[in-house]
From TrEMBL:
Residues 238-325 form the Aldehyde oxidase/xanthine dehydrogenase a/b hammerhead domain. Pfam families: MoCoBD_1, MoCoBD_2. It comes from Sapientia aquatica. PANTHER family: ALDEHYDE DEHYDROGENASE (PTHR47495). SMART domains: Ald_Xan_dh_C. Coiled coil: none annotated. This is Xanthine dehydrogenase family protein molybdopterin-binding subunit.
Length: 754
């Protein structure tokens, strides 16, 4: 029989489908045992891929997440200590190597575009399959507010498994039933008086069978849920903590880079010969466009014996740039916004959520329309981009603070032309990540520079100006809303369409070379997944390819979509002649957790007493990364200067591991979001970024910082994200307070009164 093309394709799909089905129903990859033997501290015994025990019973946890101020160097040891029954003070941490068991599963699953209210079989099936796929990928990354969420079960299982192995070893040695043995404080005991420390049993426990692993009931927790002081605070206060920029290697050189100021720019001329003769200068090297190796635009590097010599020499290069003219003529903030609006005029976009039927206003209904905008934003981490690299004898050593160890190795391998097993990664604290250190451009550059130094280590440091003008920015966005209200003030129809670049498409292209295609949840998150119970609603988003490099910024799409959505909800409340708080309450009848959080934030504000004259409250409620946050902002205005005095915040993030760190993260997220709300804007003109440092890219100063009060709602639900969810509600809360105070509805960020 002749085989037609259609039959061939269908046959191929059948085979592929069978393979996928077989893979899909097979068990998930386990996350306790590493694929390669652990390299453990001398004298310690590894009981699984997460922990080892020393003869003195000290426990070593192999930390698979990057500490960038979110407190995981305290919280993750708490999970191990809780299930292992040891004091937290007895748990040491060392950075984990690269292994599939350390891959981030939760972050990939959370990236699926399902509505939180969807509890259907399709959602659960796709989540399960994605989780399985994530385990196979094993990408080791810290992001998406997923550190606790991703580690919650596996670290508790690692601790419980090790405890069971230690009990089994003691029971075998004492010839008693394991069920008669108990543990406390790193000691296994039996009712007849026998005792042995974990250190004494560890070597025997390696060969014991833990049997069925049983996790503690939350009622048995002695550490989890209790305030614990941060273990990294003392070293950060006294200067002992080592960030990437603090690294010192014997005979290390320093390098600075000057990159093309406009996209697509190349070096036309420079006085490199003269600069090479300046004191301390070792070499002047041109970095060609390394985009194919996941890095930034072309630039010129000066390598010198000290940082200041390199920095001073860089300033003397007098570089003339060429190329990029088309981009220069076309790229400006105005042209970007114009294109986003044009796309909303002509394209319907991808519909992420729809219920009922969105119809035009009837005769007795009021139509409300609004357009909101948000600009590009820089990450502006306090520690500028840097990486120390050494390429010697076919091996690469890296000293860097990174959120993305897996791709740090991949890009170093690609640039240096060595296998990944020939790369040694030394982890450092991150002086701010916020998504910027998910990128590995500075690592690629550092390796390329180290290849020019004949085996000497070199530390590449970006200046603040280079950092500000060569970021992977938070996308600019435009959102349009339409709603109808009947005579009773009820919303009968709600529609929201937005337009922006796609971070995920750019990231997949940068890292995997994939052609940009398909929907991207981050463009519409915070809009399509809201809890408000509108019977007829439709939320869609249009992806507009961005010439500007864009990346994940703290809370990603939620950062601006919360401002859009919560501001428009306030507009609807005003049009309905209802209080913004009661209006929201009426839309949350089937969402008790959201209603509880909203009421708790309002109660905090009310407890503070009557507002001073000239002050007003604004409210916002938003869920991101699984965590529900409500904020009430107390605001005043004098001579058009906006002052935020107090922020009252309530949240439900599921089970809390360390309440102390949760409160810190909320305070941090509020200030981060407030900086963006009041000042944040990266603008382009003639293809170039106009901002250069903190004088024209302001952040909230100490005297501008509000008091932040936090109420954590007790919950028995699985832990959710924490590092980012405090950021999205602050901009709309402040904006809504400004409307209550001045009558001006501000629909663009940053917030500026006319």
């Amino acid at each position: 029989m002749a085989i037609t093309r259609r039959r061939f394709l269908l046959g191929g799909l059948g085979v592929t489908g069978a393979l996928v089905l077989g893979w899909g129903v097979s068990p998930m990859r386990q996350r306790l045992e590493p694929t390669a033997p652990l390299v453990t501290p001398q004298g310690t015994v590894a009981l699984n891929g997460w922990l080892a025990i020393a003869p003195d019973s000290r426990v070593t946890l192999f930390l698979h997440k990057s500490e960038m101020g979110q407190g995981i160097s305290t919280a993750l040891p708490m999970l191990i200590a809780e299930e292992l029954d040891v004091p937290l003070s007895s748990v040491d941490i060392v950075p984990a190597g690269i292994d599939k068991i350390y891959g981030n599963v939760a972050m990939l699953v959370d990236g699926l575009p399902f509505h939180p209210d969807d509890q259907g079989a399709l959602k659960h099936g796709v989540q399960w399959t994605t989780g399985k796929f994530a385990r196979e990928l094993g990408i080791q990354v810290t992001g998406g507010s997923s550190s606790i969420k991703d580690s919650w079960l596996v670290l508790r299982q690692a601790g419980a498994s090790a405890r069971a192995m230690l009990i089994a070893a003691a029971a075998q040695q004492w010839k008693v039933p394991a069920g008669e043995c108990t543990t406390k404080g790193g000691i296994v005991s039996h009712p007849d008086g026998k005792q042995a420390s974990y250190g004494e049993l560890a070597a025997l426990a390696v060969h014991s069978n833990p049997g069925q692993i049983k996790l503690k009931d939350p009622k048995q927790f002695t550490l989890i849920g209790k305030d614990q002081p941060r273990r990294d605070s003392a070293d950060k206060v006294n200067g002992h903590a080592q960030f990437g920029i603090d690294v010192r290697v014997p005979e290390m050189l320093y390098a600075t880079v000057i990159m093309a100021p406009s996209l697509g720019g190349k070096v036309a001329s420079m006085n490199d010969a003269q600069v090479a003769q300046l004191p301390g200068v070792v070499k002047v090297h041109t970095l060609n466009d390394l985009n194919s190796k996941v890095t930034s635009v072309a630039g010129v590097v000066v390598i010198a014996k000290t940082y200041w010599q390199a920095r001073s020499a860089s300033a003397a290069l007098n570089i003339n740039w060429s190329g990029g003219e088309v981009t220069q003529q076309q790229l400006s903030s105005a042209s970007v916004m114009k294109e986003l609006r044009q796309k909303l005029d002509t394209e319907s976009g991808f519909t992420y959520y729809k219920t009922g039927s969105v119809q035009a206003a009837r005769a007795n209904e009021t139509a409300i329309h609004a357009e909101y905008t948000a600009p590009y934003l820089a990450h502006a981490t306090m520690e500028p981009m840097n990486c120390t690299a050494q390429v010697k004898n076919g091996k690469v050593s890296l000293w860097v603070g990174t959120q993305n160890p897996s791709f740090a190795l991949k890009v170093a391998s690609k640039v240096a032309g060595v296998n990944e097993d020939q790369i040694e990664l030394h982890h450092a604290f991150l002086g701010g990540g916020f998504g910027r250190r998910l990128e590995v451009d500075m690592i690629a550059q550092a390796v390329a520079v180290a290849m020019q130094t004949n085996g000497q280590a070199v530390q590449l440091i970006w200046s603040r100006e280079q950092d500000m003008s060569h970021d992977f920015y938070r996308p600019a966005a435009v959102a349009r809303f339409s709603a109808n209200l009947n005579s009773a003030g009820q919303v009968t129809s709600y529609e929201n369409r937005s337009a922006s670049g796609s971070v995920t498409q750019q990231v997949l292209q940068r890292y995997f070379g994939l052609i940009p295609a398909g929907p991207d949840k981050t463009t519409a998150e915070g809009e399509f997944d809201m809890p408000y119970e509108f019977t007829n609603q439709k939320i869609a988003s249009v992806i507009v390819p961005s010439a500007v490099p864009i990346g994940y910024w703290r809370s990603v799409g939620h950062s601006h979509n919360a401002f859009f959505k919560e501001s428009f909800i306030d507009e609807l409340a005003h049009a309905a002649k209802q209080s913004p708080i009661q209006f929201r309450r009426d839309l949350l009848k089937q969402h008790p957790r959201h209603l509880t959080v909203l009421n708790a934030a309002v109660a905090l504000a009310e407890k503070a007493g009557p507002l001073p004259q000239g002050h007003a409250h604004g409210v916002a409620l938003h869920q991101s990364f699984g965590t529900i946050v409500a904020q009430v902002a107390e605001v005043s205005v004098q001579d058009k200067e906006i002052t935020v005095h107090n922020v009252y915040c309530a949240l439900d993030c599921g089970i809390v591991v360390n309440p102390n760190v949760v409160r810190q993260q909320i305070e941090s997220a509020v200030l981060f979001g407030l900086s963006a709300a009041l000042f944040g804007e990266i603008s382009f003109k003639d293809g170039k970024v106009e901002q250069s440092n903190f004088h024209d890219y302001q952040v909230v100063r100490m005297n501008q910082a509000p008091q932040v009060q936090v109420d954590i709602i007790a919950s028995a639900e699985h832990p959710e994200g924490m590092g980012e969810p405090g950021t999205p509600p602050i901009a709309p809360a402040v904006s809504n307070a400004l409307f209550a105070l001045t009558g001006q509805r501000l629909r663009s960020l940053p917030l500026r009164l006319s």
